[in-house]
Design goal:
Layout lengths: L1 H17 L4 H10 L9 H13 L8 H11 L1 H12 L32 E3 L2 H7 L6 H10 L3 E3 L2 H14 L17 E5 L6 H14 L3 E5 L12 E2 L6 E2 L1 H19 L10 E2 L14 E2 L7 H10 L4 H14 L5 E6 L7 E9 L2 E6 L4 H6 L7 E5 L21 E3 L5 H13 L10 H11 L3 H7 L5
Parallel strand pairs: 3-12, 3-13, 4-9, 9-12
Antiparallel strand pairs: 1-2, 5-6, 7-8, 10-11
Helix pairs in contact: 2-3, 8-9, 10-11, 10-12, 11-12, 14-15, 15-16
């Protein structure tokens, strides 16, 4: 009885406001009334269209309703125009306690502690040029939702950057002071999902390249163990994946071509050949000679040009990178946890059974996974790939290499929320300290969840 009364009262209340709207527009009005943005989400639009189509009401949605729906979808464009107007008013660029919301520092190398909890502006073209292997999806999502290419300067990133900076260029006080931080040449970034590991790794690669380092950056370590052709090499007992090897070599060449042309190969041993992608073994040859005086660029070109040599070249490249002395070398691998579990590949055991192939049995992973060396290397776990929880002590990884990357602190969350107000993701008239703190604790400092909750603040 009470439930029926509430339903009747709700219908009577909403009838006055929605009487002049078509059915589909009325539903959109209810869906979007909670959000600041004038544009409903794509999932909401899809659900509404599907609902009315299944109800046989698609005929009721005439040309006028379609025009209204198009008007709703122009909300993003309206928001962009408003943000362009806001850019002319510098008084809006204020964060917590009246501090500047954006840093005036123009380089990742010049960022310092005073820049933390502020945003650094980028140009998407510059980021794509600095990290042509591909930007993290979380970074692109942040740019798309906030309508600006800017990232929060976090102390956790500065600590990661300064760790490797001190290794290459030790400060003068490190030898005389006992308070010098402990340096790690090998680091595994771990931490909760959506805490910013992938973004920090991409920015670390960006910074190192700005410094003139040679950076081997792989944003999708999972691709090394999934998809493409795979064959067992009878010479090594490992599994070759020539298609993945070729793609990895092409990615490495995108930014580093000029630098690689100046670095000579330290080994002139022949390159072992394996099966090519879909073409089997090369008849009458099991190796390919390396000409004297070849550069790393020449080596990579062999792997790209000859599919039979792709895996052998990538394995040789790993050894060559350890021998480079003229320029600092950094290995940065995202989705590194995928290399400690089973791959997508399977080996046929009997006509009715097969066994999964572990990532360590793949030749390219076997060459790049170990951290038992003196090279600078960072691997970031990606829990969005859902490989399961790994044990604390990982094989071929130093005991002290694993570092927990934190979620947002309270100060960082304050900066993020003020930034979302500036970018009209949160309505300024409903924004209060109490509300953004509730959002922070509700999301437990999770960046993507806070961004999702931001338009819901009322």
């Amino acid at each position: 009885m009470w439930r029926r009364f509430l339903a009747t009262a709700g219908t009577a209340t909403s009838h006055h406001h929605l009487s002049n709207l078509t059915p589909i527009t009325a539903v959109l009005a209810n869906e979007t009334s909670r959000f600041y943005s004038a544009k409903p989400s794509k999932s909401t639009l899809a659900k509404v269209k599907k609902k009315f189509k299944s109800d046989g009401k698609s005929d009721d949605v005439g040309g006028g309703s379609s025009a209204e729906l198009d008007a709703e979808m122009e909300g993003d464009q309206l928001r962009i125009r408003l943000l362009e107007e806001d850019d002319k008013d510098r008084s809006l660029d204020v964060g917590l306690n009246g501090l500047p919301l954006f840093t005036s520092t123009s380089s990742l190398s010049l960022l310092s502690r005073k820049d933390t909890c502020s945003y650094m502006k980028f140009r998407l073209e510059d980021l794509n040029a600095a990290v042509p292997e591909g930007l993290p999806s979380g970074m692109l999502k942040e740019f798309d939702d906030s309508k600006r290419c800017a990232l929060l300067v976090r102390q956790s990133f500065l600590d990661l950057r300064d760790n490797f900076r001190r290794i290459v260029d030790p400060p003068t006080w490190s030898s005389s002071s006992g308070k010098a931080p402990k340096l790690r040449k090998q680091i595994v970034l771990d931490g909760p999902r959506s805490c910013g590991k992938s973004i920090a790794l991409a920015m670390l690669a960006h910074w190192a390249r700005d410094e003139g380092w040679l950076v081997f950056y792989s944003p999708k370590g999972r691709d090394w163990t999934h998809g493409g052709f795979f064959y067992k090499n009878p010479e090594t007992g490992l599994w070759d994946s020539p298609l993945q090897a070729e793609n990895i070599l092409k990615d490495f060449l995108k930014f580093n071509e000029t630098c690689l042309q100046k670095i000579l190969c330290q080994s002139s041993d022949p390159i072992p050949l394996g099966e090519g992608a879909g073409v089997g073994f090369l008849k009458g040859a099991d190796s390919m000679a390396m000409p004297e005086g070849s550069t790393l660029y020449d080596l990579i070109q062999i792997g790209i040009t000859h599919t039979h040599a792709a895996v052998g070249v990538l394995v040789r490249l790993r050894k060559e990178l350890s021998l480079v002395k003229d320029v600092p070398v950094l290995l940065a691998i995202d989705q590194y946890n995928n290399w400690f579990t089973f791959s997508e590949f399977e080996e046929v055991v009997t006509p009715r059974s097969s066994r999964p192939i572990h990532a360590k049995e793949i030749a390219t992973v076997n060459a790049f996974r170990p951290m038992t060396h003196d090279d600078m290397m960072v691997g970031a776990f990606s829990h969005s790939t859902a490989v399961g929880k790994l044990r604390k002590d990982l094989p071929d990884v130093p005991d002290n290499a694993r570092v927990d990357f934190p979620r947002y602190t309270l100060d960082e969350a304050a900066a993020v929320c003020h930034y979302y107000v500036r970018q009209r993701l949160i309505r300024r008239e409903v924004f209060t300290e109490e509300k953004w703190k509730k959002m922070y604790y509700l999301a437990n400092g999770n960046g993507s969840e806070m961004r999702w909750l931001a338009p819901l603040m009322w």
